[in-house]
């Protein structure tokens, strides 16, 4: 190669995480070249470097940071192509849900500006849910004074309906992928945990890729940003900065949102869905985890912790439990 004449071996190539993704690293590793992707957030930058940014300066900063004696640069895990593809599909699904939610809010805000409020109630006096068949019938019956306003209302409603269709379509693709040979054993096992459905399980498995890459449960919680951050100053010392929110946002949100009904959980085991197959070891571990999560939440609330704080604490343990169950499945698959 062109660099063989001037480069001194051993060679190590690195580049910042970002739009280049992982394909460059995969291609170089396939050629037998050591290549790492460095997390851009772990590269120290001066104020001058932030203001005077160019490719030469970025390369120099990266070289100095990586070769420093006590370098804090962290190499990003390079996932397999099938896991990265599944992760992208799951993220697209969650992104589409958020985009559709934004369109719903815009539609409701426009109706509110013109004095239309959904106030239909059940025989018991409870407010009917929005975006049901009754709500859609009511929304379509609304007529505004100006034709331009009616056209705007029509376009907003069509955007919401198109978004809902796309959400359903992407979710079907995700659920179909979860039934593939690569992901089904892990997804079936993880869905035995309360608060984890097939979408959340697939997203977790696709993000983890290789469950053996973590040494312990705390490193898993740290990877998903569910460990306490620190904010010390003077004599004020302690973990008081909330969770770090580092790492993968999609998995963290999926797990925390999945625990929305945690206050209503009991210790009864989840019903095994049709078509799911799990081993006795996985079932026993999931039963212990479900019971522990209920006790953990009740204990934290009893000690005076806010419900949402308690849920996040349980979510931190839940991602560790998912990692532990994933390792059980991995061991079973290796043994055949």
- Return Rg in Å: 25 Å
Poorly predicted parts: none
Order of helices and strands: EHEHHEHHHHHHHHH
* Number of helical segments with 4 or more residues: 12
Q: What general outline do the C-alpha atoms trace? A: globular
Overall average pLDDT: 90
Strand order of the largest sheet: 1-2-3
Number of domains: 3
Helicity level: 55-70%
Oligomer: single chain
How far is the first residue's CA from the last residue's CA? 42 Å
Number of strands: 3
State which percent range the strand residues make up.
under 5%
Give short descriptive properties of this protein.
336 residues; three-stranded mixed beta sheet; mainly alpha; 55% helix; 12 helices
Detailed description of the structure:
This protein is mostly helical. The chain folds into three domains: 13-76, no CATH class; 81-178; 184-335, no CATH class. It is 55% helix and 3% strand. The protein has twelve helices and three strands; from the N terminus they run E-H-E-H-H-E-H-H-H-H-H-H-H-H-H. The protein has helices at residues 23-30, 47-51, 55-67, 81-113, 133-140, 147-178, 184-190, 198-208, 217-223, 249-258, 280-302, 307-335, and strands at residues 13-16, 35-38, 75-76. The protein has a three-stranded mixed beta sheet, covered by helices on one side. Helix 8 packs antiparallel against helix 10 and helix 11 (280-302) packs antiparallel against helix 12 (307-335). The longest helix is centred in the N-terminal third of the chain and has 33 residues, at 81-113. It is globular. The mean pLDDT is 90.
